[in-house]
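Justification of resources, computational component.

The compute hours requested in this renewal are based largely on the per-chain cost of generating structure records like the one below. Each record pairs the submitted sequence with a full structure-token output. That output is archived, and it is also reused by downstream analysis tasks.
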Amino acid sequence: MNLPFLVTLGTIWQKAWPFLIAILFFGLIIFIHEFGHFFFAKLFGVRVNEFALGMGPTLLKKQGKETKYALHLFPIGGYCAMEGEDEESEDDRAFCNKKLWQRMIIVAAGATFNLILGVVICCILVGTDGDYVGTRTILRFHETAISNSEGGLMPGDEILRIDGKRVFSDYDVTFLMQRNNTGKYHMVVRRDGKKVDLPAVPFQVRTGGNFSYAEDNTIGDLSARMKKAGLKNGDRILAVNGEAVADNAALAAAIGADRDFVIDYTVERDGETLDVNKVKMMTVTVFDFVILGEKKTVFSVLGGGVKYALTMSRLVYLSLFDLIRGHYGLSELAGPIGTVSVIANVAQESVQTADWSGIIMIMAMITINIGLFNLLPIPALDGGRLFFMFIELIFRKPIPAKYEGWVHAVGMVLLLAFMAVISASDIWKWISGVGFY
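The structure output for this chain reads:
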């Protein structure tokens, strides 16, 4: 075997292995979800005709005593096909002939298993992150802090609410404060055993997370939103708001000095000087206090893991509300293709830095996201099926299977169409770096 071939093979492997990890992780999430349905179906005596992972052409299949097990080419789904699941059946072991409470448990089990996996991963993350478990209590403030000014926070305050949202853990503090870029937060704290309402706690706000740049001010990594504003990877920034910037320090200072977070850039692109005006910058809140840590024990890690899972669960539905309200565009959503790419990038970074917390966190977030999304009352999803079962529970009479089937069929078509659009946006982002919207 010649050397050039080995070099080529090694190069391919270096690019491919992060994506293989992402695909295997997706396969694990799908397996856990479908196994939840499968486990309780078998427990309640339901006949399972087929248990499959993936979609498309069949790679492997094996016929068991009554269930066919299959592995398909594309790792974008799976199914646990039960007798009488979508149609009437005279089989005593059919899904449709089981008691309502048993059917509800079988349908909810897939998402529930995903959420349990999410909690387990969160516990692993909390257990491996440092020597302490974070709390909601403020230990001390930095020298430049402004949140401890008159009417603000104090050492020993336990943060209970931020902008009306309950704080479960120290992760909540980070997430909830990043949803508000005004620099003023309505907080409720427990101080000396009493609840204290602080209507306007001040924090510094600065630009952050917009793009990276090399030593000569050449932009190296831009988000789709920044590209839509007119900037491009490879642009060299010459001036900020009309003021020339000679190096990294001057560029960082000029961006940091801006107070309305809308910046006019002058850049050099392909030998030409161009103006890119009114670029709206992302902002981050400057955290000016340190959270008290609790010594790790089995119970503190378990408690911290559950609280972290609650934080991620709320992140899912708050992000959904933000999407509905127009805070996010289509280009900021990711389908299976975009998600695999994100996992692959994080996996590669984790290997390079020997820090696995990033990949563990994204694993927890994705499995919790999938679990909660499946419980939404949307036709074709588990939550849609549960919705019809709750109607049956209330009216003591099931909706005819053919009508429910029609609703789920329409829901599936719309869901697949939505996924197709998101996947097309993912592909377009790969090609152009900018999504559809």
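The mean pLDDT is 81. The longest strand covers residues 48-63.
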